[in-house]
Structure formats: structure tokens, C-alpha cells
Amino acid sequence: MKKQIIAVIIPAALLVFAFIACNSNSEKTETEAIQPVPPEIKSVFINGDSLHYVDVGKGETIILIHGTLGDYRLWLPHLDTFSKNHRVIAYSRRYAYPNKQVVNDSADYTVIPHAEDLASLIQSLNVGPVHLVGHSYGAFTALLTTLKHPELVKTVTLGEPPVAPLLMSVPGGDTIANKFFAIVKPAAEAFKSGNDEQGVSIFAAWVIGDSNFYKSLPAEARSAMLANTLELRGSLLSNKPFPEVKCEDLKKIQTPVLLMKGEKTTSFFSVIIDEVDKCLVNKEKIILPGATHGLQMENPGDFNKMVLTFIDKH
């Protein structure tokens, strides 16, 4: 039962939040209405394949790491703010747009290669030690990288990392995990039958709480989500999406850590990040007002301010 529960718990850092954030404010100022020119997309060949990224600004390096169903584009609205006094790199993790990797066997999907990619990215670009800012699955990626390569990381911000194995040591953790499993099982079945769009639609409905949400999105929004389904499919169908991470492992981290959770996030993410907080020794924990798991997409102003304040301390 333990392995089954861990195997089906996946992050919900969905691209849909970006569209929610963009659509939630219908009144735009003249400045906000002006769309900046997107930065040049670059690529780096690491671990046998190419990963794409954007690179702006000067100063100490901040690397932004997106979650599931997202890609580097999720961070574009934040680049101007973060790059005022820092060099900022936002990259698309393996399998995300516009990368060309494929998942050979979803049953073997895991977060570990993403952490290996991140370490190799830092080394290849010769930018370490860096400030890592990760969201959801990207936060788990940042956490593993910090565990394995502390010499590459100056600080790390973890936005609701789904460190699912920690639920097994929490009273009532099995109940939280089983509830999540019951919700996402239909999405997994849809992916298993080859209906990726239905899988994304079901999963988005769970995140947003609206069964018609996916259908109501503009065609370009649905297309952007579908361009990043490989990871979600792999996570849902994997036998081992997450490595075993124990409290004892987290206690070894000396790197300064900022833990962030949304004020309105689900118990799944809230319980996990509270457990991570108990295990770390050099950490701060903050709550992002008004946000669920979308965090930086739902409250970008406070997100940017809180993260940069933490980074500037170190």
C-alpha cells in the first residue's frame, strides 16, 4: 500500500494557473498592456540531450524551475523583476516544451534525472553556486539537487515541493494520500488509454474545482498545456515517481532554505511542507497570501518580493 500511495501522488504545478492569473485581472494598466519582447531562447547539451532556457540580467545567478505541465514560459512575467539585480535563468526541464525528449517507459518515470539535469546545467554554464527557486515538481528537483550537490547551491526556495514519502510519517497521511489517489485515478486511466487531453482535463478539474474549466480555455491555452503532458503522464503511470526522502536526509542540508506555501493550498501540499519545515535546520517558512498551489502565478507581486528578500539576505 505504501508504494502504491507514493507512486500515484504527483505535483499539480499546472500551466492552467498561468492562464488563471492572466485572466483574473481584466483591467490592465497601460504599462501592463505593453508586452515585452521575449528573451532569446538558448539551448545547452547535457546528459545526452538538449535543454532550452532563457538567460537575462547580470549579478548572482538565480535559476527558476517550473512544475508539471509547465515550461520556461511560466517564468517570463517574473524575469524583469528578478533580473534587475541578478542574472536569471529559466529553463524547460526534460520533456517540457520546446525540448524534444520522449518518455520511453512511463513506469520508470522519476524526478531523479531532473535533479541530475539541473546539476549539469549549473556546471555546464559555470554559474554556481546559484540561488534555486523551484515550484512543485521543480521544487522537488531543486531539493534533490541541494541534497546531492550542496556546493552548487547558495540558497534554495521551495514552493510546495511534493515530497510525498514524508506523508507516510504523518498521522493521517494515508488518508490524505488515498483521497488524492481517488481523485486522480480517472486521469491516470485516461492517459493509460492514450487519451492525453482527457487526462489533462480531469486533472485540471481537480486543481480548479470546475469540471468545465479545461473546455472553457482558449484554444492556445489548451495547446500550451498539451505540449507539456509527457511529465504528467509519466508521473501518473510511474511505479516510482519520487525517491525515498527521509527527515534524516533533510536534516543534513546546511544551505539556507525558504519554504513557501499558499494560504489556500490543499492539505496535501500543506501537510508535506509543514513536515519539511520540521526536518530542516537552516530555514524560513512563509505563507503566500491568497494563493493556492499556483503560488507565483496567483500572487506574483508578493511571491517576487518574498523570494528576493530572502535571496538578498544571503
Explain the layout of strands and helices.
Elements: H1 2-8, H2 16-24, H3 30-33, E1 42-46, E2 49-56, E3 61-65, H4 79-82, E4 87-91, H5 112-125, E5 130-135, H6 137-148, E6 153-159, H7 173-192, H8 196-208, H9 213-216, H10 219-226, H11 229-237, H12 247-250, E7 257-262, H13 267-279, E8 283-288, H14 300-313
Parallel strand pairs: 3-4, 3-5, 5-6, 6-7, 7-8
Antiparallel strand pairs: 1-2, 2-4
Helix pairs in contact: 1-7, 5-6, 7-8
Describe this structure in words.
This protein is α/β, with parallel strands linked by helices and 314 residues long. The chain has a single domain (17-167, 240-313), classed as Rossmann fold (3-Layer(aba) Sandwich), CATH 3.40.50. 43% of the residues lie in helices and 15% in strands. It has an 8-stranded mixed sheet, sandwiched between helices. α1 packs across α7, α5 (112-125) packs across α6 (137-148) and α7 packs antiparallel against α8 (196-208). The longest helix has 20 residues, at 173-192.
Concise account of the structure shown:
The chain has helices at 2-8, 16-24, 30-33, 79-82, 112-125, 137-148, 173-192, 196-208, 213-216, 219-226, 229-237, 247-250, 267-279, 300-313, and strands at 42-46, 49-56, 61-65, 87-91, 130-135, 153-159, 257-262, 283-288. The chain has 314 residues and is α/β, with parallel strands linked by helices. The protein has an eight-stranded mixed sheet, with helices on both faces.
